[in-house]
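Example record

The entry below shows one chain as it appears in the dataset: sequence first, then structure tokens.
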Amino acid sequence: MTSALLFFIGAAGLAWLALAPRAGDGLRQRARTVREKRAAGPELEDELALPFLRRVLRPTLNALFRALTRVTPRGLQRRARERLAHAGLHTDAARFIATKTLVAGATLVGFLVVIGLAAASDRAGQLTVIAIIATLLAYSLPEVWLSRAIGRRRKSYQRALPDVMDLLCVSVEAGLGFDGAVQKVAEKFPPPIGEEFREYLKEVKLGKPRPEALRSLSARSGLPEVQSFAAAVIQAEELGVSITKVLRVQSEQLRQRRKQRAEEKAMKTPIKMLFPLIIFIFPTVFIVVLGPALLSLVEMFKR
């Protein structure tokens, strides 16, 4: 009996020694958790004080963007990246595609809810057609806006490019290097062309070789004239040809192209004026010329 009691007391003591450190660790862990919560209290309060858009909607949208980016084809992302660069936008291509998809999906879901509510009526078929058209429009409108932005940027490029070539040619003939002449262009011309040449200078200063920087410049512009200019400068540098002659030839070609575009627009003007003449001018002329005669005929037949 005594041995059993001693055995029981020994086993209890061993168990207490084995569990005492764990209990202490648990207490220490709980104390650490309480301290961390108290320390994070102001941060939590600051986070709760943020607007609902930044606290909930923005993380949710970012998660959706990441999920859509993973399933978007690489070719589609590359084409969108090129078009955004041609428009002068620095938006991420995957985010642009994801935004279009989310807007179209939200439009479709909204119309599906309306169709579900109106399923018992006779207008469910019409609402379905409207939902499909609205979804396609919601997906296509960003592309239409992007195309218009690209068109405006290209027109601005084409108008300023001959003057840019003249300034480059004059600056190089005056003794400046090519990069120094480009610096003059970046200072004198407003965006978009001045901004693109500033980007070229930034790439060169960061260590990118001049041919690669010129290729990047032509790729961002998306214009055949800029691509021809970049290829001519790269070839002249590789072959050791005088860059002044290359710039002079490029300037003459660009001025000739601008003159041809102006003549083409002038030849299209009569055709563009034909429809306003038929719709607005000719009816007014007919009323003024034939109106009195028609009134006289009406009075004659009344007699």
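Notes for this example: The two ends are 148 Å apart (CA to CA). The longest helix spans residues 243-302.
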